[in-house]
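Ticket #4471: structure export looks truncated?
Reporter: QA, pipeline team
Priority: medium

Steps to reproduce: submit the single chain below to the structure queue and open the exported record.
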Amino acid sequence: MVLPTPVGKRGEDVVHTTVAIIGAGPTGLLLAGDLARAGIPVTLFERRANTSNLTRAFGVHARTLELLDARALADRIVAGGAKVEHLRLFDRIRLDLSRLPSRYPFLLITPQSRVEEALEERAVAAGARIERGAALTGLRQDDERATLEFGEQTVTADWVVGADGVHSTVRDALGLPFPGKAVLTSIMLADVRLATPPEDVLAVNAVGDAFAMVAPFGDGWYRIFAWDRRHQVGDDVPVTLDEMRGVTRRVHGTDFGITEARWLARFHSDERQSPRYRVGRILLAGDAAHVHSPAGGQGMNTGLQDAANLSWKLVATIQGWAPAGLLDTYEAERHPVGRLVLRSSGALIRMAMIHSAPARALRNTLGNMLLGLPPVARRATGVVSGVGIGYPGAPRATDVALAEGSRLYQALREGRHVLLTDRSVPGHADRLLVAVPAISGSEAVLVRPDGYVAWRGPAADAPAAVSRFLSPAT
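Actual output as written to the record:
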């Protein structure tokens, strides 16, 4: 690996970076891009020597697309994917995403590798460094810095973010527990070609003792996720095409003409969450902080939303203008969301695994009845899509039109707070953008860089609010 140029006078074998991110998956890449855009020296360290498209995530939800829109990436990613407006959970139960109050009222089916590609290009263009083949072997910290070991190479950093997945070396180095349990074992993955692809973009169903989901790569290959209660074996037992054909036929009534595979694997799915997301100068994000069942396709999305929450707070802390305690709000805001996603995805997978036919029939009847109630449907789609999730005192900001013809989330591409008002508010130009809404009034709204409302009130009070949330640099 080629590490950053050594700086300072701590020895020729020691290099320094302001922020070290361990893990160059979606979470780490989005975070690195945000930090680099703000002028923060950042280096990602990835243990894998090469990138790979053999990824598990295939769904990008509405809230994540909004955050990607705020980074000028959503249009590109949407163009390469397929939209699902009605998400089938099992049997006849479906969630109607088409009514979401979002610019993106759908689930986008696209491989994680394409999301990573877009995020990596953005991060590198902004000045982030990515060092591959760099396996973290040691980590410690004191009041001034963190010290990381990569074999014989030593790196120091002012801040470290562990975005290195469920088997996080960073979390282990901190001595943090990862309580929870395996919710599903012997999940099968296969990248295959199909002679007769499903009519639906996303074909998913469960029959009590098995489930199978079929999603397109968009290049003629399909990813199948499958589970068979009748054949539970260890992760090291090879998956065969006949096994995939059998469980897919049992679930969907057809195996869609599986002809060949380029990749077959088996894994297990855990439900776990770290009790802490921050210890001193070291933070956790994504699967290093929380991991849950694949139901609802929320894993990658939750990690990307972690990164969007953390990035601007870390920038403010490093640049010296963060209000007291701002960085601590990362854990305070995101830990409850991780817990909510763990519970909601866990509930979905447990309902899908109901074994008896009478219980499944009751599930279907109650599910359809409850989702027929508008408040319940809005809550369910809001949680799954992320659009309905906010923070205490900081709800999600809607993408309002601006007087100049653009939108709020386009204004957020500057990486600054946006104040929606038709009045002038001087100062803080490096961290504040004042924008006039197309429909203005006596109220002003201060929107955080991650697209949540920091303050709302009379326009006359906006200067005081801005000073409170964007205190002068010291």
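Status: closed, not a bug. The export was complete when the record was re-opened. Leaving a note from the reviewer for reference: Confidence is low (pLDDT under 50) at residues 5-12.
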